[in-house]
Amino acid sequence: MEVISLLVTPVLLFGTWLTGSLLERRHLESLRLLESGSRDVLAITIEDVPPEWTVESCELVIGNVVISQDYFKRFAAAMKGIVGGRIGVYEPLLERARREALLRMKGVAHARGYNTIINVRIETSPLARSRGDGKGTAGVEIMAFGTAIDVDYATRLQMTGTSA
Amino acid sequence: MIISNTQEIPGKSIIEFFGVVSGSTVRAKHIGSDIGAALKNVVGGELKGYTELLTEARGEAIRRMSRQAEEQGANAIVNVRFATSSVAQGAAELFAYGTAVRVE
Hints:
The complex is a heterodimer of chains A (about 160) and B (about 100).
Chain A: H1 2-37, E1 42-43, E2 58-68, H2 71-83, H3 90-111, E3 116-126, E4 140-149, H4 153-160
Parallel strand pairs in A: 1-3
Antiparallel strand pairs in A: 2-4, 3-4
Chain B: E1 2-3, E2 14-28, H1 31-43, E3 45-46, H2 48-71, E4 76-88, E5 91-103
Parallel strand pairs in B: 1-4
Antiparallel strand pairs in B: 2-5, 4-5
């Protein structure tokens, strides 16, 4: 019995290290694929529309994703937390989530017939842990939002020089 | 109702201000999606149940904000902001606010 309970943590750590890195690799691949196809929607953080752009309609668009870290990386981060410094394992997770949220926002704009998103903002909020002792599930929500507008393609091309 | 997070509605000019309008909703997670999320929390990745929950809840907050603006006679909301706060274990408040205006 004792041997089994001693083995649980290493097995769980190894298992989640495998699944976690597999899921991460797959997600990065899908992001690369989708980002190459999303070049027709231009997202900018600037609020003012250049005067030569004529805008017919506009709409708020939102893209969000709730993401969580795997057990192995949380363990690694906790270990790193003892000595302090940069927690490298969390950086790719948040970066992936932000790219995903931006893509989803662009997808919404594209589906509704808009080609440009202005005043883009990205917000990060941690979700509460489900148990009182601070354990249980928790995730981080990344939300990207902006105002989708439809701009004449030729006019926009003059401003940006590229299609994206 | 035109909703935008910019200070002005692009291509239109504001003729009247009505003040701040807001909408909020507090949501708790469903037990089923919570179990799924607990498993997903071990292997990592997207918690789809939570993503959908928050999308739906934020839509509700925006609808409430729009209704408030409509009651005042506005036809647009500018400078919309969002805030998410954890009010209790497993529950989150989604809050949307902006300025109700009338545009031409």
